[in-house]
Amino acid sequence: MGEFRMDPLFEMISGKRTLSVVELQEMHKSEAQAGRAKISEVQSEVMRWVAEGERRMGGVSSGAARDFRSGFRKYPASIRGTGERDGGLLHSD
User: Fold this and answer.
1) In tens digits, what is the pLDDT along the chain, a chain of 93 residues?
2) Where are the domains of the chain?
3) Its pTM surpasses 0.85
4) Where are the alpha helices (DSSP H) in the chain?
């Protein structure tokens, strides 16, 4: 939770004290800042993964992709899976 001290929160939860409006606002602000930082971090990571995936796919020839797909189709559907577990990334059509 960033720089916010947790002691007042634990005291409030245990019933020993009530947090002031200022303390609650500070805690909310701290959480919001941490959330925005995490969103930015995840967005950067997603962009790196997309770029890496595009780079890898760009290096595969159409013939190699076709050979992979035909080899993949040879396996029974029970081994291939339906693609539901991986978000539909593997299609057997």
Assistant:
1) 455 567 777 887 888 888 788 878 888 888 899 899 999 999 999 999 999 988 888 888 888 888 877 776 777 766 656 554 444 444 444
2) 1-59, 62-93
3) no
4) 7-13, 21-58, 62-73, 77-80
